[in-house]
Specification:
With 273 residues, this protein is α/β, with parallel strands linked by helices. The protein contains eight helices and nine strands. It has a seven-stranded mixed beta sheet, with helices on both faces. Strands 6-7 form a two-stranded antiparallel sheet. Strand 6 and strand 7 form a beta hairpin. The longest helix is centred in the middle third of the chain and has 23 residues.
């Protein structure tokens, strides 16, 4: 059997599910950033989880342009692993709005405020359920993929379709140039807050060995089941914060937000290496 090249030992995974009335990010936002994100992954292996007309064709064209070895799985949002598990979060939103909590003055970077006031109220309950299902399904999808990873793949990493937006806005932003212990999940810190404290993890990039993902997934799903109905408007990062706090030995922070810089324009960011 021919030796597997080093840049082929990691399988990158990405998700792309357009959501009607998504007030957090519209489709144009992702269509603009996807080519830049794909360029970052030139010459690598990439698996796409997706649904929607024309997405597979666009993805294949971008992959070919950058010499990416691509594969894909079509999965409906309603078939995502956590689609039903997130229902208590939607019920929490309904209760908070009925109690008038969406009028409370809370810090803009508090996760609960962002999700309740923008993602739930402006997008609607159905769209927000889809968003939360996508966010919280990242780790279950990585764990499932790890169990049947192609021969030669040693680690599996999630990269958001919009990962290019982080160029220059956090230290060590280029994950392809970083290294970390094999027995840990590599991630970046977050500029957002959870109950007033900085979130320890941003889920735009998550990488671990194929042996570690099933363990982390079990911890994540346990935490999701425990926290989904606790009265906070959760996403995958707030749920993972509990896993990080209880199991710090399983995680490695690659970099942190650069103070005063959240996002660089793509043209400027392309000059930052």
């Amino acid at each position: 059997m021919p030796e597997i090249k080093e840049n082929k030992k990691t399988m990158y995974c990405m998700g792309f599910w357009p959501i009607e009335n998504n007030q957090k990010r519209n489709l144009e936002h992702y269509n603009k950033l996807l080519p830049e994100s794909m360029r970052l992954l030139r010459g690598r292996r990439l698996h796409l989880f997706y649904d929607g007309k024309g997405i597979a064709e666009s993805f294949a064209a971008e992959a070919e342009k950058y010499g990416i070895e691509a594969s894909k799985t079509r999965v409906r949002i309603s078939d995502l692993p956590t689609f039903d598990a997130v229902l208590p979060i939607i019920s929490t939103c309904e209760r908070l709005v009925s109690e008038g909590k969406h009028h409370d003055d809370t810090p803009a970077r508090e996760k609960m405020s962002m999700h309740l006031k923008r993602d739930y109220l402006l997008s609607g309950a159905d769209a927000f359920r889809s968003m939360v299902a996508i966010w919280t399904s990242k780790i279950p999808l990585l764990a499932e993929f790890s169990r049947s990873a192609p021969v030669g793949v040693k680690s599996v990493a999630w990269v958001d379709a919009s990962i290019a937006k982080f160029k220059g806005s956090r230290t060590n932003w280029n994950f392809l140039r970083q290294s970390w212990p094999k027995d840990r999940v590599a991630h970046y810190a977050s500029p957002m807050f959870f109950h007033g404290a900085p979130l320890p993890l941003n889920a735009s990039f998550l990488s671990a060995s194929i042996d570690l993902w099933p363990k982390v997934n079990a911890l994540f799903l346990e935490e999701l089941a425990k926290r989904a109905g606790d009265g906070y408007v959760h996403d995958e990062e707030t749920i993972m914060s509990g896993v990080v706090m209880q199991n710090p030995e399983l995680f490695h922070t690659l970099g942190r937000p650069v103070r005063g810089i959240r996002r660089l324009p793509l043209k400027l960011a392309s000059l930052v290496q």
